[in-house]
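Let us practice reading a record.
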Amino acid sequence: MKTVSDLGDLRGKRVLVRSDLNVPLDGSVITDDGRVRASVPTIKGLAEAGARVIVVAHLGRPKGAPDPAFSLGPVATRLGELLDLQVFFARDTVGNDAKTVVAGLGNGDIAVLENVRFNAGETSKDDAVRGEFADQLAALADVFVSDGFGVVHRKQASVYDIATRLPAAVGSLVQTEVEVLKRLTEHPERPYVVVLGGSKVSDKLGVIDNLLDKADSLLIGGGMVFTFLAAQGHEVGQSLLEVDQLDVAKGYIDAAAEKGVDLILPTDIVVAPEFKADSPATIVPADQIPADQLGLDIGPDSAAAFADVIRGARTVFWNGPMGVFEMEAFAAGTKAIAQALTEVDGLSVVGGGDSAAAVRTLGFEDSAFGHISTGGGASLEYLEGKTLPGLAILENQSVEGND
């Protein structure tokens, strides 16, 4: 794939940058600006090269029409603060305001256009409809830079179709993400430890399938662990359980044994009678969960054991919290995993999504980890071995749509 340096002199060129600015908002207040921070290096580099930078992105899931609740206005303001520069904001994406703002840009200026998903063409399944919107975007620019890794698994106008209409390259964020993921999938330094959590086994099937052939150890926590425990014949009480995945979980346990992969489940669980922050928590053996309780975190013995395995690794990939980290009583397992990752002598990768939110919520600095992915879903699909349309089009590959 071409990088920005392959595009030549960009002074005076209109460069359309697809960033990932899909941040959580509380009203108009950004509660985690991690993705905005991650977008800064590429945007700043282009501006310093004298380009006229036009940033496009989405926020939330509007229904193909303007919705003030999903405006990128607050994000444009935050981007300006981080850059310490004026960032212009267009109140539409390809309409009169966008055209006026873009026409007024000078060399080194930066503009953010309104949410691309306010336009039905962005996410349309109809190639022609999506292509028409991509044509309108392309008319605003001379060059395209793909720098929103969190959306490269989507076949959408501002990610995929635009790259067929303008000279295109990846930005530094996407370039770094791909380099890190290749290290996880092609020639990882060993021992290689994969830590999976989150609520559902079904969300991680592809990752487990693909990484069972690559990892030395697979640590399972979070809500998904109860399906594994139930597959071993243990009582899981009122805990989250995917009954339709019991045979799958048992299959993974058997496959790990056959392949010599150390599949490690918790030996103790933090349980409570209700899913509430103030519900009284107790610690029980993983094979003795009371029928009237539900598991909400891995226990301290498990957290210590998981941490020991992680600290002994040269490569670690972690996706999914170990418990309900948003509630203090059930955050210790996730915090122990995060702390252990900061102590890895090698590559430690936090796989975006809830894992990235967890490390920040629990007070860790991004710099404490080898890499924090900006794309949870995109990272998982890459690790599953899937073709990501937004990358494939830049490699001149033919791809199929991806919902």
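A brief commentary: Residues 34-48 form the longest helix (15 residues).
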